[in-house]
Design goal:
The chain has 205 residues and is α+β, with helices and mostly antiparallel strands. Helix content is 24%, strand content 32%.
């Protein structure tokens, strides 16, 4: 009996179906791979931008750390001049957290900021008594090279002198550490040793 259909036609149709299936699978696979690649690229880009922001908004010490003593054997304040690192962006010091510690057991994970950051509420006169550990504060004692309106942003080329009260554990021959943690940027650790004899004003090394 003569066949009324051709097997060659079915073979070609099967091949076309298989080819279409392979193309669809390859398209879906490539879409998934490209999507994952784009996601990875965006994540890496965000990481790089965050790293640049962290590195470009750091503080640095300008000059010496000065110590003020009003009690003869105890440190009352530390005056630290800070500025932005080269190429740094403006930093809001109102959001900065300062912590204190020494090897005599003195600890303060968050030294209180004076209202408005100004030292009007925190007298730093040389005849002031040493504050208690529970009343320690920090403030901005002086702003140098400021241009324009007075604000809480430490901007490029500006130098701010930060006054930090120290507790009564900061006596002679004590190693003290301040950690300045801005909202954006790396922590600036500052470690100094109170000398064996104190004047009213001296540099701390």
């Amino acid at each position: 009996m003569k066949k009324i259909y051709s097997e060659d036609a079915f073979t070609g149709l099967e091949a076309a179906i298989v080819l279409i299936a392979f193309v669809v699978v390859a398209a879906v696979f490539s879409y998934v791979v490209l999507g994952a690649g784009f996601f990875t690229t965006q994540t890496a880009q965000a990481t790089v931008h965050t790293g640049v922001a962290q590195a470009s908004s750091s503080l640095e010490i300008v000059g010496n750390v000065m110590g003020i003593s009003n009690a003869g054997t105890q440190l009352s304040y530390a005056n630290i001049s800070v500025a932005l690192t080269a190429g740094g962006t403006a930093m809001d010091l109102d959001q900065m957290v300062i912590s204190y510690m020494d090897n005599n057991g003195g600890r303060n994970p968050s030294v209180n900021a004076s209202p408005g950051l100004a030292c009007s509420a925190l007298t730093i006169a040389l005849n002031e008594d040493v504050a208690s550990a529970s009343a320690t504060q920090w403030c901005v004692a002086q702003k140098i090279n400021t241009v324009g309106s007075d604000n809480k942003l430490l901007e490029p080329n500006e130098i701010w002198v930060i006054a930090i009260q120290t507790p009564d554990t900061a006596d002679i021959n004590t190693k003290i550490t301040f950690n300045l943690q801005p909202a954006v940027g790396a922590v600036l650790p500052i470690t100094r040793t109170v000398p064996g004899a104190l004047n009213k004003v001296q540099a701390l090394y």
